[in-house]
Amino acid sequence: MSSPLHSAIPNSGISLNILIIGAGLAGLSTAITLSQTGHDVTVLEKSESKKEVGYMIVMGSNAMRVLNKIGVNSRKAGAVDMDFIERRHYKTLELLSSLDVAKYDKAPAKLYYRPDLHNELKRVALLGLGGKAVRLILNAKVVSVDINNGSATLADGRVFKGDVLIGADGERSIVKSSFSEPGGMQQAHFKIFRSLIPTSAFLSDARTRRVLDLCRDRFVMFCHPTNSLISVLIGRNGDLLDVECGYRYRQGERAMDASDQFGIRKRLLEEFKGYHPDIWCGIEMAMVTTDWEIWKSTSQKNLTQGKAVLAGDAAHSMEPTTGQGGSQGLEDAGALAVFLSNIGSKSEIPHRLELLSKMRIERTSKVVPLSGIRLGEEELIRKNFPKHPVSRSSIKNGDEHIAFLFDYDVIEESKKTLQEAETPRASL
Ligand SMILES: Cc1cc2nc3c(=O)[nH]c(=O)nc-3n(C[C@H](O)[C@H](O)[C@H](O)COP(=O)(O)OP(=O)(O)OC[C@H]3O[C@@H](n4cnc5c(N)ncnc54)[C@H](O)[C@@H]3O)c2cc1C
Predict the structure, then answer these.
(1) Residue range 351-356: average pLDDT?
(2) Which member of 25, 93, 355, 398 has the greatest number of CB atoms within 10 A?
(3) Are residues 214 and 324 both part of a single domain?
């Protein structure tokens, strides 16, 4: 059975052997787009039973365009619609800005509980829905790669080889580190406390019920003017809440271990004591809170070298505030399917990967520097911080920022780029 992706990217070229390292969101979605466009895909994943981190994830309309085409069943995955992105005052709860994202209704943005989205991607990949079944090898830690040969060696000595080697192995990518000019990593200026709370707990108290009513069908950030923010994300068919508390860490302060719940709660209290009592009441309901450092990549000059190409966080890890890290990985998955389609001979692959790299760097070099912005705050930043990347960009306000992120069809853009690049070659 062919998928909508197959109709969008008809492939009459040769079938390639694709080797992907990493079965995160980027690796699995790329495995699906490539198997649905006729390639043979093997994924190597170091963990024994790859499970996604258990928090919520926003998939913007740019990502949903790809997810919908590969046949991901969002209803089955418990996804919840996200119609607005809003900022509210941390103390008064007053509405500061509201961005309507429901207008991108060709591919409405959604909130997923990550493990559910991951399981759904695994189902589509392993059953080979709309394409060939993906071969997923777990407990397969890659210890070295030869990017010129397209091969990866596992800790147990086994060697795998592909016509294309895709590094979807996260921000500390072993594939990226094999490039002659690997980009670096930089710690963001804030950390995040994350807690999962059943919605039923919020419903049991009038104060948290009020918070819940403010957050339905939307992504709400309760914002301190400068130092912190709390977002409450409702997912898993509306049954589960993810409370994410971002704050500026002190110099030298590292993420606390999850076993130190006493230390984590003490720090939470210190940082967020000024927040509205209704929100406080919600934070106190968390049974377990984890503390996360955020790292972002510094510019990667080229996403391809030899037979290798980078995707997902390996190519462009970023700050989570605009909710675009995973969504950009989905864009990579869509782009790779286009650039590796209709290839007549394997000698064309390096040129195709160069074209892909150029297009993806152009896009992500604009997305990444803006990834720490609280959506809706653009005008304020432009007024007060003339050197901020958004002040130097053409984006003037939240609506324009959302349009730049969401109103982007990676498959159509990739086809256009490829067509423009191939036309003069064909007429030579
Ligand atoms: C707090 C927070 C909130 C976020 N919220 C959002 C959001 O709302 N929306 C959004 O789009 N993004 C969000 N992101 C970003 C998003 O989580 C990441 O961009 C995304 O998960 C990256 O997926 P990936 O597949 O590229 O990398 P990863 O998830 O890191 O997957 C890499 C995989 O490679 C495997 N691997 C690594 N090394 C090897 C090896 N040597 N051999 C074999 N396997 C290997 C790993 O085990 C892993 O499974 C958020 C991030 C954070 C920190």
Answers:
(1) 98
(2) 25
(3) no
